[in-house]
Amino acid sequence: MATQKQLRLFPGFLVLALLALPAQGETTNSTMAVASTPAPVQNTFACKNCVDRPVRAMYLYTADATECLNVPGNGSLCDDIRTAIPECFNWENWKGGWVGATAHRIFSEVNPPSVVAMTRANFSAEAYAEYKGGSSFTRCVYEIRLDNVDICVGNFWETAERRKLVPFSSQMFADTMRLVTVPRGFKATNR
Fold first, then answer.
1. Band of the pLDDT at 43, cuts 50, 70, 90?
2. CA-CA distance, 55 to 153, in Å (whole number)?
3. Which residues contact 51 (CB under 8 A, 6 or more apart)?
4. How many domains are contained in the chain?
């Protein structure tokens, strides 16, 4: 059985952070080790320089959250294989937005030998076969489950469907939603 190392993140990170790292020289079919979330140690992560294999990261462009700098449209062109340019697949460029900046800091500190940057343009036929829905965020979760990707970087909602497939890291931000209803026959008045 492979030894699992955990990528340790600070509390509140709203990005899938799932790595199953075999001991050096070993292989494994496991696709996930739950990333624990300790308090930062001296303003850094508890897992500094602890990843000894390449990390496969899929970046899901969202304006203001996960952006690819040095690319026209900040990454919007990176999702389509017809418009993606080489800069889309350099993890160093994906440090825009609050999620991108956080992921960049984590990768910089855990210091894997390399980060293989992917985008929606890299979704596998296998993931399309497994998941027929329209959410690229859920499709990325399937890529993790299929062991094609180690981490999906984006502003995810943790849904029951996704949680059944892979574990999530702790959240960094929460959307608060309220349902407001109006009784039938209600007439608004200006006062």
1. low
2. 12
3. 5, 7, 19, 21, 110, 111, 112, 113
4. 1
pLDDT higher than threshold 70 for residue 37: no
Residue 43 lies in a domain: no
Identify whether 36 is part of a domain: no
Give me the pLDDT at residue 2, please. Answer: 34
Six token digits for residue 186: 């209600």
Asked if residue 37 is part of any domain, the answer here is no
Which residue type, as a one-letter code, is found at position 31? T
Of 157, 153, 164, 184, give the one whose Cα is nearest residue 7: 153
Residue 114 to residues 46, 90, 94, 117, 180: CA-CA distances in angstroms?
19, 10, 14, 9, 48
Q: Which domain holds residue 69?
A: 55-165
How many residues make up the chain in this entry?
191
88 is a domain residue: yes
